[in-house]
Structure formats: structure tokens, C-alpha cells
TrEMBL record:
<feature type="transmembrane region" description="Helical">
    <location>
        <begin position="43"/>
        <end position="64"/>
    </location>
</feature>
<dbReference type="InterPro" id="IPR002549">
    <property type="entry name" value="AI-2E-like"/>
</dbReference>
<feature type="transmembrane region" description="Helical">
    <location>
        <begin position="20"/>
        <end position="37"/>
    </location>
</feature>
<dbReference type="GO" id="GO:0055085">
    <property type="term" value="P:transmembrane transport"/>
</dbReference>
<feature type="transmembrane region" description="Helical">
    <location>
        <begin position="211"/>
        <end position="240"/>
    </location>
</feature>
<comment type="similarity">
    <text>Belongs to the autoinducer-2 exporter (AI-2E) (TC 2.A.86) family.</text>
</comment>
<feature type="transmembrane region" description="Helical">
    <location>
        <begin position="76"/>
        <end position="96"/>
    </location>
</feature>
<feature type="transmembrane region" description="Helical">
    <location>
        <begin position="252"/>
        <end position="280"/>
    </location>
</feature>
<feature type="transmembrane region" description="Helical">
    <location>
        <begin position="148"/>
        <end position="171"/>
    </location>
</feature>
<keyword id="KW-0472">Membrane</keyword>
<protein>
    <submittedName>
        <fullName>Predicted PurR-regulated permease PerM</fullName>
    </submittedName>
</protein>
<dbReference type="Pfam" id="PF01594">
    <property type="entry name" value="AI-2E_transport"/>
</dbReference>
<keyword id="KW-0812">Transmembrane</keyword>
<feature type="transmembrane region" description="Helical">
    <location>
        <begin position="301"/>
        <end position="334"/>
    </location>
</feature>
<dbReference type="GO" id="GO:0016020">
    <property type="term" value="C:membrane"/>
</dbReference>
<keyword id="KW-1133">Transmembrane helix</keyword>
Amino acid sequence: MAAEKPDSAQGDLNLFTRKVWITMGIITLIVLLTFILKAAFNVLLMVFAGALIAVYFHGLGNLLQRKIKLSHRWCVLIGVLITLLLVGFLFSFLGAKISTQVSELSKDIPAILEDVKGRLNGSEVGRKILYYFSDGNSSKMMNSFQDVFRTSFGVVGDVYIILLIGIFFTVNPGLYREGIIKLIPTAGKNRARAVIKRLDFTLKGWLKGMLIAMLFISILSFIGLSIINVPMALALAFFAGLLNFIPNFGPLIAMIPAVLIGFTESANTALVIALLYILIQTIESNIITPTIQNVMIKIPPALIIISQVLFGTLTGGLGIILATPLLVVVIVIVDELYVKRQLDT
């Protein structure tokens, strides 16, 4: 009996070792699956971005078709050419100037922050603000502002792949649409066609409204900043219009460099610039956004923030940029496949 105890202890040790290895294997598998799913989700986001490009071109083609009465294919082609000409115009006439101003602003940010720090030291409230950032956060903020300025003027992600996917989706959307429908069981094919049709209509309306809002913000920002005589007004206005594509966070990010530049003139100038941005965003929120919502669907603001935080945490910048259209897709799918079915029942 005494000889069996070591064997029993050895067996327990072997069992424990196996359990440890199994646990480590499961954890490793979960980690690997998480990385794979994250990478796959990034790819899906790029596919979705390409689909948005195709939706834009076909929406522009529909608009032209109502005006010039040509076939849809020719109108899409004309829409692509018009877009390329507009982009070429922006790059040739405005691109060089904007690029120069952005480069100058990026280089000036450290000096601007130092100047703001010196001005804040001149008041009691300013010294309290600096006290909260005295642990080295100011240098982190400076780096963050520079990174934002360097990366916000290009699409975060692989632009080439997104554009290539967008071109393929634009040339033959029916091929991919029918390919998705073929994966659906026979009983659900009609419902799937209805969902895709509504998604197409809703995303076109959303894109139309967003482009109008971005143009509106750019023009008003340029006019307002030029009246105040703010340096680099063109770059700041372009930046404000571009970032308006990102609800909630975009306008706030766009306002920061403008206010910092205002601080180099005076605190009153910075305050006027902040009030200008707030006024423009208020007008946009109360006029442009309701028009967009009448075309598409009403989205609760809290859901937009939640989706931005969620997708931003999962995939970074591209997730934040595409959070709102992704939320639109989710709402439409839930409404078509669940809410309407419950009402029918």
C-alpha cells in the first residue's frame, strides 16, 4: 500500500500538468482567433469602404440620369469622370497650397503650444490648467496633435485596395449583389433583395447629406476664418470639412488646431474662433443633419458615440470613420429582419 502513494502523487502531477497545458493551449487559441478575427474585420471594413465608393458613384449616376436621360451605365461613367476632374482640380489648384499650409502648421504646433503655455501662465486659471498637465502630458498632446495632422488628410488604411474594390463594385454591382443573394436560402431571397435595396437607398441618402454638410462646413469655415484673418484659413477650412465626416469627434478635432493658432494672436481671438466653430456646427446640426435624417433614418446620438468607441477600439481610425454608416447598416438590417417581422407577427 505504501508503494502506491508515490504512483498516485505522480498521477495527480501528470493530470495537473495536462490541465495546465490544455488551459494554455485554449488561451493561445483564443488569442490567435482574436487576432485573426480582428484582421478579418479590418478586411471587411475595407470591403465596406469600397462598397461606399460604389454607392457614391451609382448615386451620382442616378442623379445624372434624371437630368440628361442617358443609360445608367453611361451616367455612372460620366459621374466617375466628373469626380476625377474635381479631385484633379482640387489637387492642382488647391492641393499644393493646402499641403504647404498643413506642413507649416504641423511644424508650428510645438511653438504654438509653448506660446499657449506662456499665456496660460499669466493667469490663475491658466496656471491651474497647466498644473493638471505638468506630469508630461503636454508633450504627449503635442505629439498627438502632430500625428493627427499628418494622418487625417489621407484615408487610414490601404487606400489602393479600397479604391480597387470600389472600382470593381462600381463596374458590376449586380454580380456581387446576386452572389450574396445566392448564399441565402430560397425562402429568404425576396427579403434579402428588399434589405439590399433599402440599404442602397439609405446609404445613398446618407452620403448625399454628408457631402453637402462637408461642403457647407468648409465654405463657412473658410469665410469665417478669413474674416477673422486667421493664418492658414484654407487648410483649416478643408480640415474642418473633411473631419465633419466623423460625427461628434471630427468637429472637435478640427477646432483644436484653429483655437491653438488663435492663441498665438490673443486669447480673445482663440475665443472668437471657438465660437465660430460652435456656431457653424450648431447651424449644421439644426439644418443639414435634420435634412439628412429625413432622407435616411433617424439615428440616436448616443448610438453613434457607442459605435464610434466600439469600432474605434476594435480597428482604430478606419473603424471610427466608418462607424456611422456601419450603424446605419445594422439599424436597417435589424429593422427589416426583426422589427418588421415582429410587427407582421
